[in-house]
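[retry 2/3] Transposase: previous attempt timed out, resubmitting with same input.
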Amino acid sequence: MISNFPTPYPDELIYSVIARYAVHHGVLSPKYLTEELFNNRNLTPTYDLPSHLDRLASYLPDQYNALTLIRQHTLLPIFQLFQPYTVMRYAVQALRSEQYQSLHTKLGKNASRIKSVTFFRFCPDCWQEQMEQYGEVYWKRRWQITGFEYCTKHQQPLFVSSIPCNGLDRKFYVAHLNALEDSSQLAFSPQDLNHHIELSGLIEELLAHSTYVSVQDFSTLSDAYFLILKNRDLLSGRKNIHYEKARQLVIDYWGESLLAYYQLADLDSENCWLKNILRKHRKAFSYLEHLIVLKALVPEKNPIETYKQYIDLASLDLEEAAATVCIDNKVDQTLSEDQKRWTTLIQKHSAKQARQCDSALYARLYRNNKDWILLTNKSAVILPSSLSKPRVDWKERDRQFVKQLIKIRNELLEDLESPQWTKKFFIRQLGSVSMIEKNWNFFPLTAAFLDRYAESIDCYQIRRMTRTFIRQNIEDKCYPPSVFLRQSGLSEQRLTPEARRFFNNIWEEIKNE
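[retry 2/3] Transposase: success.
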């Protein structure tokens, strides 16, 4: 049981809490620290979206739980408003659990144009206040968010420390005043100062938002942006976006230098980020991209409030569209015969099942009434999801691998010419290298076999000398020691102590003969 685990300070990163624990207890080894806290020596510090939060919450007072830590001490809230419900549920489970989850990829963070900070950032005046109030310093989470470049409390740009928070050098949890050494203040164009201050305020508000706007899927986001464009007269025709007007609004409001600062200056290419965010959403976009577009399109209102308003409208439009299709489970008399038949089908089946029942009907409606059928399908019956079955029986697969390994080893026993029987060699013979290495914990029998029968360097050298000894006896030759070793692919310098004793014994027998 962990005792005296630090209580998180306001807006403190979980990374920083663990760093203070290491300082308080004098822990110098990162492997010992992760083993003590998480019973795992191979964890890498993650500052933004750390896992194992259920375990960490158990070290804290009763008023703390994993959900509290997620809301107040991780960076998940900045993704929360702009992600579908299913993704957010997955993210919460990933942060709470102890299993590896590809969360950064799931949230679109790895592929985003908005790059994460690479070195921890801080405000010296905030640190001075922390020292006066708490007697120590800590990393605030808002400092480590791209877009929060300016301390709104002390009216100055943040400083960048020499402590990496990403990349190969992030091997230890660090939180101390040594970060002041080799630090430098962020520099940006004076004309963008007000915009940086505005973005910092919006990010603070985004972190403070505890209410979650329910977004069922990316189609709801697409509908919300369509309504915004429609209300701002940015549509030419019925559905075509007047992109040049929208592009000019973004440039006029934010300026090209600020967009370039965040790698968002490319607004001319056919597949640029602005065109994609205004079209049908097929993937997640960064919180910063959403804030920049929403504020430019509706400058007189708070972009977060604008977003919530139009998400609600988009959801309401879908409900109204569904209501026009079916009223008290009766088919609307103004619909065509095909539409009536389809409406009847989706009252009993899901959209996919209805399509399978009458594919010709679906094809006619899709060709002639595409908008109607797409809206109608959203009111179709949603079948209860069946319990997910494990796709892989790991125990059975583990037994199969061990049987294959036993067979492989039996075949190799008489083969003195084979390469060294390392763990990697055996795994390659199975043809499932990636699966075994990524799911090592699911193969205890395979791991036990490899630990027992993997060939050490001593054994491998002895086997090679045995092969040469047998060959020279068959050929009725007697090699000098240097030639004998060369024929074995060895040298005096490379022999291990055990192999050297074996070689000396062989040479004594040859002399005695």
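[retry 2/3] Transposase: DSSP finds 26 helices and nine strands in the chain.
[retry 2/3] clearing retry counter.
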